Amino acid sequence: MSKPICYSTKAFSTTSATSPLSAAVIERRVPTATDVQIQILYCGVCHSDLHFARNEWHFTEYPAVPGHEIVGRVTTVGSGVTKFKVGDIVGVGCLVDSCRTCPNCRTGLEQFCDNGMVMTYGSMDKHLGTPTLGGYSQSIVVTEDFVLRMPANLNPAAAAPLLCAGITTYSPMRHWKVGPGQKVGIVGLGGLGHMGVKFAKAFGAHVVLFTTSPGKVADGKRLGADEVVVSTDEAQMTAQAGSFDFILDAVSASHDINAYLNLLKRDGNLVLVGAPEKPLPVAAFPLLFRRRSISGSLIGGLPETQEMLDFCGQHNITSDIEMIRMDQINTAYERMLKSDVKYRFVIDMASLT
Ligand code: NAP
Ligand code: ZN
Ligand code: ZN
């Protein structure tokens, strides 16, 4: 494969699992006929960025550039681009390409592409033959089919986290039809969890937030939870036993999921979206009794991501964010590890000069 013509753009990258992120210059392809070039304005900070930067999932190649909650302005469009024009405010989430021909791609589930989705970072770039580099950078080039329209009424910085935290919580709740009359639990009030609370409420469910942080109880209610349970309090947990239709587990670290399986009703379902480094032990009995299920869900495909963004535009849903400068990313990671995020860091990319 001959390497396409490239240009240089500034970024923040890391060179090993134990190095801090620091300023770097990376190469992007010059847009082809079907590409959109985007000046990145804001990039959300997902816990996956941290897992990936520190090789907690054991596939990171260095130097690595995380970032997959990208909102920016279109600066160039290829001659064949029909959906976007220069100046549009657009989004890019966790995917930048897929085979587009397998049954999953054809049904808009590109995240399950049989031939391998191309993630925004950490996948093999089909054009350059090197690992893809994410949104902690000044610009990105993406094929138009993987670029999303941002609703004009939403604050673009607060909408950036919708591109991962939003779709990752929206998709399983749509798939398992969360709605009125159901009791829904959200475990962990971080970036994903706080979007999960907002969507479960918007879908009409009775929403119970589980948090390990007593200091987040008031925020949980403000964000839409009908009840907040401090999960370290055994009496509060026992009071919820056998009462949930659906629980979304958005915890980034090791924890006891059996405690949550016990809270499900007959045929209730616990969906894991959190992706901790180490396996989570599952006891048989909580599953056997009451025929409970445990499932997982991965981000969402392009059509559903656009549907989610449009839903957020209609219902005025965005993320609660704390804006940071690019050079504050290492401190932000440390705060994220202490569950000290309210509720998503977003990088102001203008700070990367
Ligand atoms: P986050 O903002 O750091 O939130 C995680 C929350 O989990 C924390 O705020 C905390 O909430 C709770 N928590 C942390 N450590 C805990 C522990 N030891 N025991 C119990 N609770 C704990 O992370 P995020 O960005 O929302 O991501 C959450 C997870 O989802 C990560 O593993 C990430 O990689 C994964 N993820 C998966 C997908 C997917 O497609 N499935 C997509 C994006 C992210 P409280 O303070 O309320 O307890
Ligand atoms: Zn993410
Ligand atoms: Zn495919």
Summarize the SSE layout with pairings.
Elements: E1 6-13, E2 22-29, E3 35-44, H1 47-53, E4 70-77, E5 89-92, E6 95-97, H2 103-106, E7 118-119, E8 139-143, E9 148-149, H3 156-159, H4 165-175, E10 183-187, H5 191-202, E11 206-211, H6 217-223, E12 227-230, H7 234-238, E13 244-249, H8 258-261, E14 264-272, H9 284-288, E15 293-296, H10 302-315, E16 321-325, H11 329-337, E17 344-348
Parallel strand pairs: 10-11, 10-13, 11-12, 13-14, 14-15, 16-17
Antiparallel strand pairs: 1-2, 3-4, 3-8, 3-17, 4-5, 5-9, 6-7
The structure holds NADP nicotinamide-adenine-dinucleotide phosphate (NAP) and zinc ion (2 copies).
Number of continuous helical runs: 11
Helicity, as a percent range: 10-25%
Structural class: alpha/beta
Beta content comes to 25-35%
The CATH superfamily of the largest domain bears the name Medium-chain alcohol dehydrogenases, catalytic domain
Q: Oligomerization state of this entry?
A: single chain
CATH architecture of the largest domain: Alpha-Beta Complex
| Anisotropy-based shape | globular
CATH class of the largest domain: Alpha Beta
Q: Please outline the major beta sheet.
A: 7 strands, mixed
Bound molecules: NADP nicotinamide-adenine-dinucleotide phosphate, zinc ion
Note the run of SSEs as H and E: EEEHEEEHEEEHHEHEHEHEHEHEHEHE
CATH topology of the largest domain: Quinone Oxidoreductase, Chain A, domain 1
The pLDDT mean sits at: 97
